[in-house]
Structure formats: structure tokens, C-alpha cells
Amino acid sequence: MTGATDDIIRADGLRLVYRSPAGEAVGVGTAPEGLSFAVRRGEIFGIIGPDGSGKSTLLRILCSLLRPQSGSATVDGYDVVRDYRELRQHIGYMPGTFSLYGDLTVRENLDFYATLFGTTTVEENYPLIADIYSHIEPFEKRLAAHLSGGMKQKLALSCALIHKPHVLFLDEPTTGIDPISRTDLWRMLRKLSADGVTVVASTAYMDEASRCDRVAFMRRGNFIAMDTPEQLVSQYRLPLYRLETTDRMAALEALESYPEVLHAYAFGDSFHITLRDRADETALRTHIASDARLAGSRAVATEPTLEDAFLLLSTDDDE
Fold first, then answer.
1. Which of 32, 77, 129, 312 is 20 to 30 A from 123, comparing alpha carbons?
2. Prediction pTM value
3. Rounded to whole angstroms, how far apart are CA atoms 65 and 26?
């Protein structure tokens, strides 16, 4: 079942909210109007946010694993509550933790997941997973529990794809794996997207977000921004500087005491400093030169990144 629209996922007023031990409202759609958004057919849609922002809860709702308290959502034309049986035939889901059977071999896991979808066989859909599965095929007889982190992720992705889903949901798929495996995985996702599979992936890595067609910044159960990575970065309008310093702790303390600094945070081996609107660059340099805690520091103008854009929006959300 497919809709006439280019939107393969639609959520309207989606809400699943509960109280944390501290009494804070957490979940999805904590704003009064709930959460509404759409994902286009064939795109890679990234959901970026800190731990506890609602990313995993949202994916589980869209996979029909959690029932929303209010609002509605459809995936590939199927209502996530009413049509959950049919929906599950057309989606693949890779949770944030390895959830395959450690006491089965690589091939036994793949065969098992293929049999869950009726007449599907590994041989029938092997071309879909060939680029991924070929990396672990030499280890078909190895127990899944004995695979490395990267190999486990490739097996989990193969199992999620073996029934040829229209939409693939990935919950932080590269957590705990090495940089080479991360790169391989995202190259594979781009190929799947080119083949028409819609990919929805949550991640805490901003470099991965930049590989998505569109990105949603999620905070406290709501999307605070949604656009292409390039457009999100282009909306960064405030003065931004990179500060190179020797005493990082003292420098951070000094920067936070300067009223013209909107926020300062570690960025690699330096700091990124965002000044308030129309702040004076000369005044910043004077402050740096006059504060003993910033002795030997140097500030230079720099271009914003997706991480800078997210932190600025999060700051605006707090004020």
C-alpha cells in the first residue's frame, strides 16, 4: 500500500508523554500541539538530539512498537496503530542495542529473519543485502555473540533488510563501532536510498547528520528545527569564533563570565565562541588580552557547523 503523495511518513499531533523520576515531562510531543512532520519517499532523514530527547521513543511509535496517547502517524500509507500487522511487512527496524540471537550463527540469524516474512528467502533478496552481507559472509558459521561491533551492526542491518522493506528505521546504528565501519555503513545507506528505500536514522553524531538529505533537531520530545544540513547551517547569523588556548578550564570560566558571549563550548582541541547579536569583535579581543585566565589565547573568526547550529537553537529554546 502506497499513498499518492511523495510523503511516505506523516505524523500529526503525535504525543506519548510520561513523567521522569525528576517530574519532568519526557517522551514525544511534549509541546501542547504534539509532534507533526513528514518524511519524503526515498530520502535519508536524520533525527539528531541528546540522550533522552525522545528519538528512540519516536522510532518505536513509527514502527508500531509503542502506542501514542494521541495524534496519528502513517508509514507507507499504513496507520501505525490500526494497521500495525500490515505495516510490519513493509518496514525494517534496527534498534539501538544488538538484539539478534547470540547463540545462532550469522547465517542462522539471517535465515530466521527471512522466514518471519512469509515466503521471503535469503536467496530471493540477496542482491539487496549483498554489499553489506559480503563483509560478514566469510564468517557465516560464527556465533553472532562472537562478532565484533561493526560486524554485528552489518548483520543486524542485513536482517532488517532481508524482506525488502520500503522504510528502514535505524536507532543510533553506529554507536560503539569503529570509524571505518561507520563510514562503510553510511555508504551502504546512501546506496539503499538511491535504490528507493527510505531511511530514518537517529544519531548523536553531527558528522553523520551532515550525510542526511534532511535533518530534524530533537529536544525534549519536539523538533526545534527541520531542514537540509546546508540550510540549517546557513541560518546561523551570529558572530562565531574559534579560540585556541593552553588552559582550557580557566579559559572556559573566563569566557562564561563575559556578558557578550552567548555560549562557549569545547570543539575538538579548541573552543567555539558565539557572540550575542551585534557584539563587538574588538571588545572580545580586548577582553581576551586583559584576562589573565586567557593569557596566550587567540580568537579567529570561523564558519559554523551543524553542531554550532544545533547548540544555538538549543540556547534559543532555553531563553
1. 77
2. 0.89
3. 18
Sheet of strand 298-301, all strands in order from the earlier edge strand to the far edge: 261-267, 270-275, 240-244, 298-301
DSSP 8-state assignment for residue 292:
G
Per the CB < 8 A criterion, the answer to whether 167 and 76 are in contact is: yes
Measure Cα distances from 203 to 40, 50, 194, 220 in Å: 19, 9, 21, 15
Closest CA to 313 of 228, 219, 244: 219
The residue ranges of DSSP E strands in 91-197, in sequence order, are 91-94, 167-171
Separation CA 109–CA 150 (nearest Å):
16
Positive or negative, the CA dihedral 307, 308, 311, 312 is: negative
pLDDT tens per residue, range 204-237: 888 899 999 999 999 999 999 999 999 999 999 8
